[in-house]
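Example 284.
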Amino acid sequence: MTTDEEDVVAYEVRGAIAFVRLNRPQYRNAQNSKVTYALDAAFTRATNDDTVKVIVLGGNGDHFCAGHDIGTPGRDIHESFERKAVIWWDHVGAEGVDSRFARESEVYLGMCRRWREIPKPTIAMVQGACIAGGLMLAWSCDFIVASDDAFFQDPVVRMGIPGVEYFAHPWVTNPRAAKEMLFTGDRMPAQRAYELGMVNHLAPRAELEARTVEIAERMAQMPRLGLALAKKAVNQAEDLQGLRAGMDSVFGLHHAAHAHNAEVQGDSLAGVGIASIRDAGDRS
Ligand code: ZN
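Predicted structure in complex with zinc ion:
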């Protein structure tokens, strides 16, 4: 299905900071493939712009991101895009696991890994909902600054699936908090995420951008190469703590769950659509 939505991602450079913003506020910034590739283009542009030292990822509207697009008119899972993250065949025209694995390796796990390796500091600026696919975007960034009314939630276990494709939960929180998050599907308030170390800083919503810019400007004082190498160093440490290998193994479990749903219920998402995710977002 095509959509007439324009500019699903907004891009702006102010000083040394590039602002990349999800721009589907009418759908709480639900992430379809068009958004994914627009994000990738924006990140590439910021990486190639020598004046940009730090990249801020935000979302226009009341919410950062409600997750992957599983029900808006702009849902585009059957469209082809030129692959950027992995070398694989097109998912379009393939069936079953052959299709799902190809698609999710590229637009979910592959893209998030690709963005994690952007050689400039990235800061997620999170307000309101950060649900499922939204977590993947925030977790791919180096830093998270959240408004004190933000919340983080992975309700994907409701589909019988062990969490989102970029399975960073145990590393960005801790194993017990990860289990709580997954087993309950509940919202994790920003304050709790801050206490667990997932969020770097909290700010009142009205001050979120100013606080984020203040931090970004401090980083921008550092030499570009120093920042890039420091980022690589910490990412390597995280990988040595099992992040990368762990995600690979969980990606297999994730696809076993999709396949089970498709085999038993005829739907890889177990019949869970946008309404359920919306309910999850609305539940206080
Ligand atoms: Zn999936």
